[in-house]
Amino acid sequence: MDDPLNATFNSTFNGTFPNGTNSTSEPFTAGPPKPFWTNLLLPTLYLTILLTTLISFSRTYRSRQLQRAARLAPWFPSHTSRDIYLTLLHLEPSDAKSEKSTKVPESVLKAALLKRALEDIQRIVALRQAKGPLQALLQRGSVGEELWVRFQRAEGEMEEEVKEVVEE
Q1: For residue 95, what are the CA distances in angstroms to 43, 44, 101, 103?
Q2: What is the pLDDT of residue 146?
Q3: What pLDDT does residue 121 have?
Q4: Between 20 and 30 A from 41 (CA), which of 30, 67, 88, 107?
């Protein structure tokens, strides 16, 4: 069974590698296979740490953003007309036996509501006048993002205020 082709092959490539090591002197022996769970331990641990870090960062970032937004000063000063109207609306006689304990007249409530609506309209006009220039300044980078957030919050508050006045 000595084939001349195999003899040539074996004499040319006798198992000696270019770095001088002999493949037959140190045979490769595989160790016992590792259990399946140990192969999954490292990737699972990596994913757990990664997800925990991302979740904690996300929560911290969102809470800081909410705190920063809450600290912003309001766009308009306090709404005294609304406060007066709500006080009159919820004013109840403290003692029914008292002579002066009467219900607030409808005309006074309507006048307070009208004054509240008038102030709301003035604020809406001020917001509409300020919106264009504020957007231009924001695009140029002349004003900060906080001012724009305050403006948007004021717009939202005014929308809610107008809805309340219309419902009343």
Answers
A1: 73, 70, 7, 12
A2: 83
A3: 93
A4: 30
